[in-house]
Amino acid sequence: MSENISQANLDMIFKKTEQVQYKKEKDIITIIRPQNTGFQNFLRKLKAKIPEHTYLELDEYGSLAFTLVDGKTTVEKIGKQLSETFPDDADHLYTRLLLFLHHLQTKEKIIELIEKENS
Q: What distances in angstroms separate CA 103 from CA 33, 62, 106, 110, one per listed residue?
């Protein structure tokens, strides 16, 4: 691995949030995002055409990474599985993976970092 990624980042473990909704069809994950803020509900009462849900379909790579987020598997192990499954996409693997996980955590709010207990 020629990337300059700290061991602390590789040791991070994420889990899916309890409220995340998704479906899996043929190894492809589709994130289901409810559109139910107070403002959206208000607009619906005014007969505005606002969908109840929006959908975010992940590609095969993102779907596998999301599937491996289980509250037990480290970023390093997720990366190893991705590199075995998609050997042609190994360039900047951990940089891309960490950016993807960060996006799912901070923007989509569908995964969260698990604080490790000091043994």
A: 15, 12, 5, 9
- Taking the C-alpha atoms of residue 29 and residue 22, their distance in angstroms, rounded to an integer, is 7
Among the listed residues 15, 16, 110, 9, the one whose alpha carbon sits nearest the alpha carbon of residue 71: 15
Query: Going residue by residue through the chain (119 aa), what tens digit of pLDDT does each one get?
Result: 457 889 999 999 999 999 999 999 999 999 999 888 888 888 888 988 888 899 999 999 999 999 999 999 999 999 999 999 999 887 889 999 999 999 999 999 999 999 775 54
Using the 8-state DSSP alphabet, how is residue 13 labeled?
A: B
Q: Which residue has the tokens 């997720």?
A: 78
Of 118, 38, 119, 108, the residue nearest 69 (C-alpha): 108
Give the C-alpha separation, 71 to 74, whole Å.
8
